[in-house]
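All the exercises in this workshop are built on plain-text protein records. A learned vocabulary of local backbone shapes supplies the integers on the structure line. Once this layout is familiar, the rest of the handout is easier to follow. An example says more than a description, so a record of this kind follows:
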Amino acid sequence: MNRPVQPPASAYFIEAEKEPVEARTLALIVDNEPGVLARVIGLFSGRGYNIESLTVSETEHEKHLSRITVVTRGTRHIIEQIKSQLDRIVPVHRVVDLTRQAGDDGETGPIERELAIVKVAGEGDQRMEALRLADVFRAKVVDSSIDHFVFELTGRPSKLDKFIAIMKPLGLVEVCRTGVAALTRGADPM
């Protein structure tokens, strides 16, 4: 009985395991000085990493420190590379992956909020439906006329995504979003 000959096992034929790509929220404490944001953004663009959300604000005026919150996507290995490279930029004091932080209450992940301002134009039944749904989502009317509403909505990015998707068939005209602001859970600082 002849058996087919199997080729010898080789590392070249072993398919590498594919890590899942996931969204990660990174917080950076940096010196509040000209050019720092450009250096951080340059690191992402120079290596082909995408930024899904970016927020920046001074947080400690006396110490001239700002906080940059970046949402990006990548494998665990890519995220570790990004963190390591960010840590080497001189005006960066601290880099924390908020996605992996757990709070005192056992919850995982950061507390994330985003603000959206959404303009919807419509009349009649569509107008009434837009108002009803805005109430369900706890969106606040900040401007209105006979033919449009401007809603203000704060919440997790997924909540804003759902609200915007629901408003599309009702006359969505324009959307402006702030980007994610995030903090770790629990009493300890970042």
The longest helix spans residues 124-136. The mean pLDDT is 88.
